[in-house]
Amino acid sequence: MRNTAEVVVIGGGIQGLSCAYHLAAKGIRNVSLVEMEFLGSGSSGRSAAMLVHAMWSPQTILLSRLSAQEYFAFEQIVGEKFDYKPIGHMTVATQAAEHALREEIAMQQNMNVPLEVLDPDSIKKAVPALNVEDLVLGAVCWKDGVIDPHAVMQGYARAARARGAEINEMVHATGIVLEKGRVVGVETTGGGIATPLVVNATGARAKEVASWVGLDLPITNYKRHIFITDEFHEIPQNTPFVMDSEVEWYFRKEGENVLMGMGREESTSFEPQFEPEFLEKIIERAELRAPILLNAKILRGWAGLRALTPDDLPVLGYAPGVEGFVNCCGWGGHGVMHAPAGGILTSEVIVDGKATSMDIMPFRYERFM
Ligand SMILES: Cc1cc2nc3c(=O)[nH]c(=O)nc-3n(C[C@H](O)[C@H](O)[C@H](O)COP(=O)(O)OP(=O)(O)OC[C@H]3O[C@@H](n4cnc5c(N)ncnc54)[C@H](O)[C@@H]3O)c2cc1C
To answer: What is the DSSP letter of 351?
Structure first.
């Protein structure tokens, strides 16, 4: 392992790998990434893998747009293939969630997100499996779809290595060395790395890593469960991802199977324990929203963490008061879809001195001060 680097990226999830690739692609030859387990072992390997344009805020829509430009041309830009499946993303609302969805739709239309607004009859027509009796509104964006996060991570890793970056698995960063308020190195289980620049892309552990340089990141980790059914043909292949916005319960096709997700429990553990009994809560909502799913056999499941900031926007850019410490974290439930944006913006901040693809003021740490 190298003992000096121009930049050390801590964290080998999809965000850290995107940062390593984009830094190397912008000409930084000596990037070193350290991952304490294996690539994608954190949240990036446990997501529902959706890319969504119909996001809840103007900033997150812009992040989706910037990311989609790279995802839709991944082979031309990064030189690696991955399979994007534009299955569509539908949000449905009961009366309790109607007002929020109406406001979201107005904002999205204002930002030219290609949306179809749906009444209960058209929801039923698009997804016959849904019980629409208590639904009042829906919206679908057919551009949205499923990414393959593992292929993306492997693609970024290979493309970064080809440009001189070193990607180290099973190397745990244990501390950051500061001298007179500036970063001079990273301590790891593989030895010290002298460096003037560190990127904090550690997902659920970002708060802990930031605390090493005296920074208090307001990030809380929330646990979410996903369950996969056995082959289930009663939900056909042309079904979009469906989000029941009142309780954040969702499902989509996963090959011949169905993936269902739900959950927002605060977690103090970095190792989210899978709780088979959580299935009861997911099934309870399935019984109301898509009762046909009760016929499906559950094959397996997992739990993952979403690292959320109070405004659910990421933390990007240099941290105040510490020279050489850059955050790329706080990605909540949208870090897979926004991985290109995270890497592009972080590399612009480091190499060009400022982000040019998008205004990152709303993402700066200073908003919490
Ligand atoms: C159930 C679920 C569903 C989701 N669905 C979606 C979705 O549909 N679309 C979407 O865009 N997002 C989704 N997300 C969110 C998405 O998974 C995350 O936002 C994203 O994976 C964050 O990526 P990351 O690289 O920042 O973090 P991670 O993938 O967690 O990577 C951080 C890495 O840092 C490593 N690390 C931590 N500390 C250290 C250290 N000290 N030294 C070395 N390595 C360290 C960890 O081992 C980890 O691999 C979902 C999340 C969950 C849990």
So the answer is: I
